[in-house]
Amino acid sequence: MSGYPADAMGLDPRTKSALLWGVVGCLSFLVLVQGYTLFVEPPLSIARGLAVGLAVGVGATIGAYVLEPRIAARAADRPER
Predict the structure, then answer these.
(1) Which has the least CB within 10 A, 2, 8, 59, 67?
(2) C-alpha distances in Å from residue 7, one per residue of 15, 21, 63, 65, 73
(3) What sequence ranges are listed for the domain DUF7981 (predicted)?
(4) CA-closest candidate to residue 27, choices 57, 48, 49
(5) Which of 17, 24, 52 has the alpha carbon at shortest distance from 36?
(6) Where are the alpha helices (DSSP H) in 5-45?
(7) What's the gap between Cα 25 and its chain centre?
(8) Contact, 53 vs 29, CB < 8 A?
């Protein structure tokens, strides 16, 4: 056991990475909506913005979990320059 809290909760590094990418995706979307709202009329209500932000976060989590091994394998097979 390495002493990290994620190990105690049973999260492997791949799952932890995917969840963190999901959080980044969700927060990035919410920041973009808020920035747009500062300059133009709000495109979404607060509730819809949160719902879409959560959907973006879930999509980013799933995408990161599925694509991470493929990208890592592709990077490992790449010849060095």
Answers:
(1) 2
(2) 11, 18, 23, 18, 24
(3) 12-74
(4) 57
(5) 52
(6) 5-8, 13-39
(7) 4
(8) yes
d(CA 38, CA 53): 18
Whole-angstrom distance, CA of residue 36 vs CA of residue 6: 35
pLDDT in tens, 10-69: 888 899 999 999 999 999 999 999 999 899 988 888 899 999 999 999 999 999 999 998
Q: Is the pTM of this model over 0.70?
A: yes
In order of 12, 14, 24, 49, the CA distances from 54 in angstroms are 23, 20, 11, 9
How far apart (Å, rounded) are the C-alpha atoms in residues 51 and 12?
28
